[in-house]
TrEMBL record:
Catalytic function, reaction form: N(6)-methyl-AMP + H2O + H(+) = IMP + methylamine
Domain of life: Eukaryota
Family, per entry: Belongs to the metallo-dependent hydrolases superfamily. Adenosine and AMP deaminases family.
InterPro entries attached to this UniProt entry: A_deaminase_dom (IPR001365), Ado/ade_deaminase (IPR006330), Metal_Hydrolase (IPR032466)
Cofactor: Zn(2+)
Positions of the Adenosine deaminase domain: 43-169, 241-440
Protein name, entry field: Adenosine deaminase domain-containing protein
Length: 446
């Protein structure tokens, strides 16, 4: 592996406060701010992000305020709210208790749409050019919600964000080139600037997204090379860098075979609306593989991508069954014995790796000891992802900055990581071509 080669005149060091508190100051040092800023300028691919885990803490507070103002009894106590909105070390078991609390708050179609819209905007702001968002469809009869209407609410939110992103790009062209400058998840240090060539592709009011089949923010006819950022933290976007968003439907491990099959059937039905695959997730201590394997085989037969959370805890028999199933991708794989690790390596199944999630939940002991290092060095296909950016207080750029520091990767190695990630997406051939060309330009200019 290579050195990242960052300049280091009086660097601002970002610390992981949870680790600082627990283990002393130096262990909290995880990257320099200059590296984070550089990572924010890289086009990136996010393949493992759970919708309700990516919710902004502020949104949770605001939804509760609205419910309180409407005279509703609140589903969480002050203490629980503090727990949800504080990012830090938590055991996996704590995480799943937290997700139940978040679900008790985000109960309505409006809340789900809002969260989906915000999550898409946050990833776009972080220069994610391709996002596969995943969520578990939920039926809540008391709120008039079916699994189908839940999916519609998510798609509405994605569509709203894409249309807003498209409008911001186009309407601001004539007046203010810094229109994409808005507070970011971690402080708003990045600014978006539009390439003037976009002007030719903009219609007054902007173009809306195409939610029927393809979820892309305002693609325009201009296809020119990316501008080289003039310095600082400006992110320069060109029209063909508009974020592409796809949806995966998750099967929760608490669900039985019938519920899992229902999710797969919904995913197949919503293929024409941007649903590209199915995920198996949820508390790894719950349920058994045999309950969902039939539904997952049906997903594959229906032409859907399949990705599985595997080996988040040590569960060798189940992990062996999952590897034998040969899904398109796997998430985590933190706890494998030597034999399983060898099977994984020879399978060449791409891995979605979530550094901060795994460290904070103590699935791996520290960033430098994360299995990313070994797999990356061995040339195994790996993709850096956030998992639950709201719950773990991270962004994809931050995960890249942590990887750059912990594994001593240069910027071009990170671009190459993003470029390879394109091959593991569930995007179609044309979308992959477009994404490859974005990555290639970044490789040349960084
Ligand atoms: C920390 N590692 C993890 N391991 C396993 N499953 C996880 C997870 N993080 C999130 N989820 C899954 O995603 C749901 C929240 O998003 P949605 O309501 O579906 O949008 C959680 O309830 C859990 O099932």
């Amino acid at each position: 592996m290579e050195n990242h080669g960052a300049e280091s005149t009086a660097p601002t060091v970002i610390k992981n406060h949870a680790k600082v508190d627990a283990k002393g100051e130096d262990e909290g040092q995880i990257y320099e701010e200059s590296i984070l800023l550089a990572c924010r300028q890289l086009p990136k691919v996010e393949l493992h992000a759970h919708l309700n885990g990516s919710v902004r803490p502020q949104t949770i507070r605001e939804i509760l305020e609205e419910r309180s103002a409407a005279g509703e009894a609140l589903p969480v106590t002050e203490l629980q709210l503090k727990d949800i909105t504080a990012c830090g070390d938590r055991s996996l078991a704590d995480c799943f208790r937290l997700f139940d609390l978040i679900h008790a708050i985000t109960t309505t179609h409006a809340a789900i749409s809002r969260i989906a819209a915000e999550v898409v905007r946050d990833f776009a702001e972080d220069r994610v050019v391709y996002l596969e968002l995943r969520t578990t469809p939920k039926a809540r009869p008391e709120y008039g919600m079916t699994k189908e209407s839940y999916i519609e609410a998510v798609l509405d939110g994605i569509g709203l964000a894409l249309s807003q992103l498209g409008q911001q790009r186009c309407t601001t062209m004539s007046t203010d080139l810094s229109c994409l400058s808005r507070p970011g998840v971690d402080g708003g240090a990045s600014e978006g600037k539009l390439d003037v060539r976009e002007a030719a592709g903009c219609t007054p009011g902007g173009e809306g997204p195409q939610m029927d089949g393809c979820c892309t923010a305002a693609p325009g006819p201009v296809d020119g090379p990316a501008s080289v950022p003039s310095g600082g933290s400006a992110v320069v976007l060109t029209n063909d860098e508009a974020i592409i968003v796809k949806l995966l439907l998750s099967i929760d491990r608490r669900e039985d075979a019938a519920a899992a099959l229902e999710t797969v059937q919904l995913a197949a039905r919503y293929k024409c609306r941007g649903v590209v695959g199915v995920d198996l997730s949820g508390n790894p201590y719950v349920g058994s593989w045999a309950s969902w394997s039939g539904a997952l085989a049906a997903a594959r037969a229906a032409g859907l991508g399949v990705t599985l959370h595997a080996g988040e805890v040590y569960s060798p028999a189940e992990t062996a069954s999952m590897l034998a199933f040969r899904p398109d991708r796997l998430g985590h794989c933190c706890c494998l014995d030597r034999e399983l690790a060898e099977t994984l390596r020879s399978s060449a199944i791409p891995l979605e790796l979530c550094l901060t999630s795994n460290v904070l939940t103590q699935s791996v002991p520290s960033y430098p000891e994360h299995h990313f290092a070994e797999l990356y060095a061995a040339g195994h296909p790996v993709v850096l992802c956030t998992d639950d950016s709201g719950v773990f207080g991270t962004t994809l750029s931050r995960e890249y900055a942590i990887a750059a520091t912990a594994f001593r990767l240069r910027m071009n190695a990170l671009v190459e990581l993003g470029r390879k990630s394109v091959e593991y997406t569930f995007a179609d051939a044309e979308e992959k071509r477009r994404l490859r060309s974005i990555m290639d330009r970044a490789l040349v200019t960084k």
